[in-house]
Write a structure and sequence with these properties.
alpha/beta, 7-stranded parallel β-sheet, 40% helix, TIGR01777 family oxidoreductase
Length: 301
């Protein structure tokens, strides 16, 4: 099948593209700089600058992973708009592609798996969070809500839409660990604030497997929590990571220091949700790395 991927050259997208290629699928990848990303993608990938450039090559499925890093820079009002636009605009283009394919060719992609994030729920304290939990209204929630609403618009063109609310993605060479490892390896790691905030996480291999699972199951649509079944608090994450590295973790970062340094963006570090993948588990998805110690042992071993 032909699979259109946005964000295909990113940390998750690269691994997804390799898995799709290994399974015999044809890759249609969107990138503003095709020549720069070509060597990151499997040979034979069809890379074009715009979603709408694929009108003449109708995809059978779409995976939407595009979006500027939410933690890339301090949240000014202008940056907030950039974060929203980088997600909503390209998602809107995907819906437009579906509309054009329906009107010109009488066919649309069967499915779109569209990324969202754990930020959909906002700060949930220590309550257990499933896909049915009402969100706390704050910027991260509003960002994810607009992103999901944009993707769900494809449903009116007969596309099955699955929304994957992704936790912290862990693996070697990138993702959340890339910034964490240097201070922890030097023994300078520590919890953020009081460390009681939950950190939903998922190994990159499990995330890619969940995306493939949702692509292949015609009965699955709507929101799914893309995180391992055993989330941990920030303090637990700190302890387990330090133990895996054989280093102390005695340098906590006070909340006031994070708030001063990052402003509103510090909420990403100081709040969280005890997010559980209830719908994936109910559908029969099996995690290869269900616990953090097993995931980190595989990554760091």
């Amino acid at each position: 099948m032909r699979v259109l991927i946005t964000g295909g050259s990113g940390f998750v997208g690269q691994r997804l593209c390799r898995r799709l290629k290994e399974a015999g699928h044809r890759l249609l990848v969107v990138s503003r700089e095709p020549d720069k990303v070509r060597d990151r993608l499997p040979e034979g990938s069809d890379i074009r600058r715009s979603v709408l450039d694929f009108v003449d090559t109708p995809p059978d499925a779409i995976v939407n992973l595009a979006g500027e890093s939410i933690a890339g820079r301090r949240w000014s009002e202008e940056q907030k708009e950039r974060l929203i636009d980088s997600r909503v605009n390209i998602t809107g283009d995907l819906v437009t592609l579906c509309e054009q394919l329906q009107s010109t060719q009488g066919r649309t992609p069967k499915v779109m798996v569209s990324a969202s994030a754990m930020g959909y729920y906002g700060d949930q304290g220590d309550r257990e969070v499933t896909e049915q939990t009402p969100p706390h209204d704050e910027f991260a929630h509003r960002l994810c809500k607009r992103w999901e609403d944009a993707a769900s618009a494809a449903e009116k063109f007969g596309v099955r839409v699955a929304l994957l609310r992704i936790g912290l993605v862990l693996d070697a060479g990138g993702g959340s660990l890339k910034k964490m490892l240097p201070p922890f390896k030097m023994g300078l790691g520590g919890r953020f604030g009081d460390g009681k905030q939950f950190m939903p996480w998922i190994h990159r291999e499990d995330l890619v497997s969940a995306i493939l699972f949702l692509l292949e199951r015609p009965d699955l649509e709507g929101p799914f929590n893309g995180s391992a079944p055993h989330p941990v608090t920030n303090a637990e994450f700190t302890r387990i990571l330090a133990k895996q590295l054989g280093r102390p973790a005695l340098m906590p970062m006070p909340a006031i220091a994070l708030e001063t340094a990052f402003g509103e963006m510090s909420r990403l570090l100081l709040t969280g949700a005890d997010m559980r993948p209830a719908r994936l588990l109910e559908a029969g998805f099996e995690f290869r790395f269900p616990t953090l110690d097993k995931a980190l042992a595989a990554i760091l071993g």
